[in-house]
Amino acid sequence: MFDKTRSFVNHRGTSFSRAISLIAVGLIMVAFGCLGAKESPSISAETKVTDLAPGWKTPITAKSLGIPLEALHFQGAPDSIEGLTIEQVVTDPDTQIRPDASCVECHDWASTATRQSFCTRIDAFMNTDQCGEGPKPKLLKDLLRDWKSRDCPD
User: Fold this and answer.
1) What pLDDT, on the 0 to 100 scale, is given for residue 132?
2) Which of 29, 64, 95, 132 could form a disulfide with 35 if both were Cys (CB 3.0 to 4.6 A apart)?
3) Is residue 49 a part of any domain in this protein?
4) Residue 127: what are its φ and ψ, rounded to 5°?
5) Is 87 in contact with 103 (CB distance < 8 Å)?
């Protein structure tokens, strides 16, 4: 004879276990950036370089880059790059735009970098994963590539 109560409990238990498993997988994917990942914004080729374009001493702003403000706060990082200069991002040990470390924590040279000395390091920055700190955010690479293409202005 068919026991409806037992069948319901088994079905419900299976569904509940399946739901828990799916939630766990989803959380793992979010932690590794696999779920809901959006392509990070990049500086548009159509963005006109103006006196407000980011520089060593000229602040980085969403408005000057033509991108949404939230794009300047990299996932998991304590600080946004909105309103910071490239000099602050590179040389200030208290500025952390990535979740894992500030530039100074990983790179001994960063605290004493000058506009010119950092400009010469841009190519290496684009192509290396120094000391295993993980990939640099695409938007940061775009920003620095643009800065270098303009001869690393203040």
Assistant:
1) 56
2) 29
3) no
4) -110, 0
5) no
Total domain count, the chain: 2
Split the chain (154 residues) into runs of 10 and give each run's mean pLDDT.
46 46 41 39 49 88 93 92 96 88 81 94 77 71 92 95
| Residue 60, burial from CB neighbour count under 10 angstroms (0-12, 13-18, 19+) | buried
Q: Burial letters for 70-97: b for 16+ Cβ neighbours within 10 Å, e otherwise? A: ebbebeebebbbbebbbbbbbbbeebbb
Same domain, 101 and 141: yes
Range of the domain at 117: 62-149
Same domain, yes or no, for 2 and 76?
no
Q: Tokens 């602040």 correspond to what residue?
A: 59
- Residue 54 domain-assigned (yes or no): no
Residues contacting 77, CB < 8 A, separation 6+: 96, 97, 98, 99
For residues 85 and 55, is the Cβ–Cβ distance under 8 A? yes
Q: Do 73 and 135 share a domain, yes or no?
A: yes
- Tokens (6 digits) for 96: 């952390």
How far apart are the C-alpha atoms of 148 and 152, rounded to whole Å? 5
Q: Is pTM, for the whole model, over 0.70? A: no
